[in-house]
Amino acid sequence: MSDETHIAPNPGPQMSAFKSKADILIYGGGAGGGKSWALVAEPLRRIHNAGYKAAIFRRTYPQIKGPGGIWDEANKLYRSFGAQMRSGQELDARFPSGAVVSFCHLQHEDTKYEYQGHQICGIFFDELTHFTQTQFFYLLSRNRSECGIRPYVWATCNPDAGSWVADFISWWIDDDGYADPQRSGRLRYFVRVNDQMHWADSREELIEQFPHYAPTDIPSVTFIQAELSDNPSLNLKDPGYRGRLMALPAIERKRLLECNWKASEGAIIQSEWLKEYSIADDKFHFNLAGVEHAVPVASCQRIATVDTAGTSKEKAAERRGDPPSWSVCGVWDSLPHFTTSVNGQKFVLNDLLFLRHVWRAQVDWNELKSQIPEVLQTWNVQKAFIENAHYGKPLVAEIKCCQTRLVGPVIAGMGDSSQGAKLERAVASGMLSRVELGKILLPSDRPSWMGDYVREMTVWTGLPKETSDQIDMTSYACYVGKRQSSSWGGLLKG
Predict the structure, then answer these.
(1) Which residues contact 227 (CB under 8 A, 6 or more apart)?
(2) Where on the phi/psi map is residue 393: left (φ > 0), alpha (ψ -120 to 50), or beta?
(3) 3-state DSSP assignment of residue 239
């Protein structure tokens, strides 16, 4: 770095990012927040080291060299530090010390394998939501170095409610879709076991659960939000940019200007439809249509609905970059019919479902046949309804603690639709109408599984290739809980 050249991050999120000790830093939020500049500028802190090798990724090659993109940004910054900018078949910046920053793409899912054997000290993803989850985790295996600098990963992104990134950073996001300012920049730690994420506030907590892990095996992660107001230089140079963001359609405006991670184009289920309950004195307390009700828990039947995953077809699709498929088990207290009185007025309550617990994992058959029965027994489930697909039939044979019944995958009322079986099932089961009426109720104490459930429900558009296993789990609960058996062609007795 020359004596004449000096750059510095803006106070606020940029400065917080540069000071962070996270192994993996996600720097996300609205458009114009200075994310790309930070991504390109960060390697300049390391270029004195001859062995330093970094790679900045965009999903496609044209995105690298697009007007105002990372290549243009890098040219403006790096030449001041003596870099030779090569723009032939290989795009890279070579600094006088010997340090190299390469500009790379992962256009196709299998492009990740072109980096097999590479050692990349600093890995940078520009617009992380454009990359698949499998590409991200594969590149982490290339994040290594012998130059004396601790390997690290930075990524930028704009909000995308349906992306795997939204799941990855969900701890830092409030239920309303906006980042929690009290959590921004805080470190968390994870291990990934059989494709399932396990999070904790310290490495020690994870080592208690997974004793074979060493502290160095467990990466730290943080999320820092940046928005337009955090980039004073852009506001000074282009004061009209905010107005152009304000002119965007509502969903894009919420994402790019307001930084909302739950704004979803075409979402079917609105978040305000999901109502909550509390439990006191062995009663469910909830509001339905503006009236406060109290219903004895003992009046309900405890059921579970199970949707298994893991077929070779699904695994192959995930390797191609499709969203992952999960095995899920929902524990419900079902109230088909109940008569109550409030302030002397009689009310008849029909078709209520109280969601008590969700188990969700990506596991193989041996773990599935062990964990599902354990969940059912722990929650004292009276009857489990298991989708008649994937591992459904063999799973029934493994369950001894309660009654079981196969259900689906085709139910009465499903017709031909270009939207896919899950949407047809949601309609035919009555799930969509039931949730709109506020008859699917969630616990008010917000257990750890609830964030993933609410997010999946409220970003689902009904299109194929969306993560929607919990959608199916809910549809089956509505289907088997219908009070009038004639409407779906069979009686399921508890």
Answers:
(1) 29, 30, 32, 33, 257, 259
(2) alpha
(3) coil
**Beta carbons within 8 Å of 20's beta carbon, 6+ residues apart:** 185, 222, 224
Region label for 135, one of left (φ > 0), alpha (ψ between -120 and 50) or beta (otherwise) = alpha
Question: Which has the higher per-residue pLDDT, 439 or 61?
Answer: 439
Cis peptide, bond prior to residue 11, ω within 30 of zero:
no
Count CB atoms within 10 A of the CB of residue 374: 11
Angle formed at CA 460 by CA 457 and CA 461, multiple of 5 degrees: 150
Beta bridge partners of 275: 441
Distance separating alpha carbons of residues 123 and 127, to the nearest angstrom: 13
- Compute CA distances 287 → 388, 451, 453, whole Å: 35, 21, 21
Distance CA 306, CA 388 (A): 10
- Could you tell me the two tokens for 426? 């949601």
Rg (CA), the chain: 25
- State how far the alpha carbon of 351 is from the alpha carbons of 67, 238, 429, 430, 481, in Å: 56, 55, 12, 10, 7
- Quote the CA–CA distance of 50 and 35 in Å, as a whole number: 26
CA atoms of 472 and 306, how far apart (whole Å): 9
Residue 265 to residue 460: CA distance in whole angstroms: 9
Residues, the chain, total?
A: 494
Give the pLDDT of residue 5: 61
Kindly tell me if the per-residue pLDDT of 312 is higher than 60.
no
Backbone angles phi, psi at 434, to 5 degrees: -70, -40
What tens digit of pLDDT does each residue of 424-444 get?
888 889 899 899 999 999 999
Question: What is the set of domains in the chain, with CATH numbers?
Answer: 13-245 (3.40.50.300), 271-487 (3.30.420.240)
Angle (nearest 5°) at CA 138 between 135 and 139? 85
